[in-house]
Amino acid sequence: MAELFLAASVRSYLHALPAPERRLVTRALSWLRRNPTRGMKLWGSSDLFLLHLYGTVEIVYSFGAGRIEVVALKGPPLSLCGERIAAVVLAAGEEEVAGLPLPLLPIEGLPLIARVIDLFAASGVDEVIAVLGYKADEVKKALEDRDVKVVINHDYSKGLSRSLRCGLQIVSPEASAVVISLGNLPFVSPETVRHLLSVYREKRRAIVAPVCGQRRGHPVVFDVSLIPELLRVRGNHGGRTVIKRHRGDLVEVRVKDPGIFTQIEPKAA
Questions:
Q1: Is residue 149's pLDDT more than 70?
Q2: Looking at the structure, do residues 155 and 222 belong to the same domain, yes or no?
Q3: Residue 269 burial (CB count, 10 A)
Q4: Is 119 found in the same domain as 200?
Q5: DSSP annotation of 140
Q6: How far apart are CA 169 and CA 167, in angstroms?
Q7: 69 and 90 co-located in one domain
Q8: Which of 24, 186, 196, 201 has a CA that sits 20 to 30 A from residue 57's CA?
Q9: Does residue 236 share a domain with residue 178?
Q10: How many domains would you assign to the chain?
Q11: Which pLDDT tens digit goes with each residue over 90-144?
């Protein structure tokens, strides 16, 4: 039986499929391993084949020397509501403004942290996780009437990666992707988040990030297949090191939303 290799984007797509669709696609890949010569050669290509199975699965692959490499894969149609998306908001830092922890700074009548949580709730994600740290008991009160999971990072002084770890560790196991955002970005449009999630679902790439002008911003969508790498991040880098390692699986989405990099800083406030 031939050895089977999946391109990184195919692995991400397969991992993100709901269980019933993933089982069907996995069965199709097993059939391909046993029957690699049954595909139809693609017109204009000397080494790529297309295989249709079960009426809904399409596999594009190359084959030779006992090796099958799947370069593209399309599974059965998905119901978008069948995928769970989590958002992790990192708001544990010890910045203060006028004696208030930064997450409690009023922004258009709401505490900063409440406004950020609200924008994700309005974007249609299935669960929102707030990572608090400095003066967490005070900050938590601003979220008492909101549907949000709160986790406390007691090591908030040791870098952003500690907060990232705290948030990712309580992401629902049913989630297919996680949206990661800094807690001081209250002006991101919920429509921007919805657009990022739509691109993630359509492209099946491991990382989706917004770009406005020439600048990349937040939030960033990560497929759950990258959570193990995100958990290994150290220091104050957040997800940047993971993005650098997976640039080939990054989709940059152009948006007209300067809110993706408009941070509320203590000095600016």
A1: yes
A2: yes
A3: 16
A4: yes
A5: H
A6: 5
A7: no
A8: 196
A9: yes
A10: 2
A11: 999 999 988 899 999 999 899 999 999 999 999 889 999 999 999 999 999 999 9
Which CATH number goes with the domain that contains 211? 3.90.550.10
Boundaries of domain holding 95? 82-260
30 with 102, same domain: the answer is: no
pLDDT at site 79: 42
| pLDDT tens for each residue of 36-58 | 999 988 876 668 999 988 767 88
User: Same structural domain for residues 207 and 231?
Assistant: yes
Q: Are 195 and 253 contacting, i.e. CB atoms less than 8 angstroms apart? A: yes
Q: Provide CB contacts within 8 A for 255, sequence distance 6+.
A: 192, 195, 210, 211, 212
**φ and ψ of 46, to 5 deg:** -90, -20
Helix (H) or strand (E) holding 178: strand 175-182
Last residue of some domain: 51, 74, 97? Answer: 74
**Bond prior to 111 in cis (omega within 30° of 0):** no
Q: CA–CA distance from 64 to each of 40, 61, 67, 194, 216 (Å)?
A: 15, 10, 5, 41, 40
Q: What is the DSSP string of 41-60?
A: EPTT-SS-EEEEETTTEEEE
Q: Does residue 265 sit within a domain?
A: no
Contact 12, 203 (CB under 8 A): no
Q: How far apart are CA 259 and CA 251, in angstroms?
A: 19
Q: Which helix (H) or strand (E) holds 194?
A: helix 190-203
